[in-house]
Design brief:
282 residues, alpha/beta, two-stranded antiparallel ribbon, 8 helices, 13 strands, 34% helix
Length: 282
């Protein structure tokens, strides 16, 4: 079944064949990307640019992002015409504001975040931490603060859809294999704590009207090569509905996460996934 079809069964496979040529460059919305040099988000950004979307991305080192995109066969002409890179930090409200509002004072239509800390090992090999243990929650706090001020003006035609890459292992129900429970809860504790707070801040933004809606993508452990097929599930649906419950699996590639986000969130403005905490895995 096409990935752009209704996602109604947690066990269904989603073919992730690229359909970039099917989209017209006319009147496509502008997407704000945070964490754009990360493996998942740069994949989403690349597909969006190739399909004609305009993008605004925050990067500590803009030249690094430019080089990474060129290695993905995006031309300098395309980058110059479709992408604006803002140098800055996602925890800085002024930098975030520059990403969310363009030079004409227009608010972006969607926000796609793939922020996350890099592993940092400690003397105890079973207790690694992150180089920035609060990057997700602090960045989402900055995004919320900017959106709150924009919403208060009442001048934005509509608030943006927000999607963010989270993680399995923090769901109310089990969404990881039993064999992976020790790894997740002993070694990934700091990352999970950060993602939980990030998710809560996204829910707050929806409740307060700072965003029009959200899609939270809970990806399995990010490992391996692209397979172009994922299994999908989510929590929070009414009892008896198809797709109720998470998709349980071990790993998923960053490329497949990024392509899934592009095809099923960005290209469809959230589609059937709006308002859901979606688990994806191989």
């Amino acid at each position: 079944m096409s990935p752009r079809s209704s996602v109604n069964d947690k066990a269904m496979s989603h073919s992730l064949e690229s359909d970039e040529a099917a989209f017209s460059a006319t009147h496509l919305p502008t997407i704000a990307f945070f964490g754009a040099t990360g493996g998942c988000t740069i994949a989403s950004l690349s597909h969006a640019l190739k399909s004609g979307y305009y993008a605004r991305a925050l990067a500590r080192t803009p030249s690094k992002l430019q080089d990474m995109l060129k290695k993905r066969q995006l031309s300098q002409k395309l980058l110059d015409g479709k992408l604006v890179i803002i140098q800055g930090n996602a925890k800085n409200e002024e930098d975030v504001r520059k990403v969310l509002i363009n030079e004409k004072g227009e608010l972006v239509d969607q926000i796609a975040s793939g922020l996350g800390g890099a592993p940092k090992f400690t003397p105890n090999p079973l207790r690694p931490t992150l180089d920035d243990p609060q990057v997700c929650q602090d960045s989402m706090a900055a995004i919320n603060a900017v959106l709150q001020k924009i919403a208060a003006t009442g001048q934005a035609p509509r608030m943006p859809l927000l999607s963010a890459i989270s993680t399995t292992g923090i769901s109310q129900s089990r969404d990881i294999p039993i064999a992976m429970i020790p790894l997740y809860h002993w070694m990934l504790g700091p990352a999970h704590a950060d993602k939980k707070i990030m998710e809560n801040r996204i829910l707050e933004a929806k409740k307060e009207g700072w965003i029009r809606d959200f899609v939270i993508i809970r990806a399995s452990l990010l490992l391996g090569e692209a397979r172009k097929e994922v299994r999908v599930g989510w929590e929070g649906k009414a009892p008896g509905q198809l797709g109720d419950g998470a998709a349980v699996g071990y790993t998923i590639s960053r490329e497949d996460v990024g392509l899934f986000v592009y095809q099923n969130v960005i290209a469809q403005s959230g589609g059937d996934l709006v308002g859901k905490k979606v688990s994806i895995t191989h």
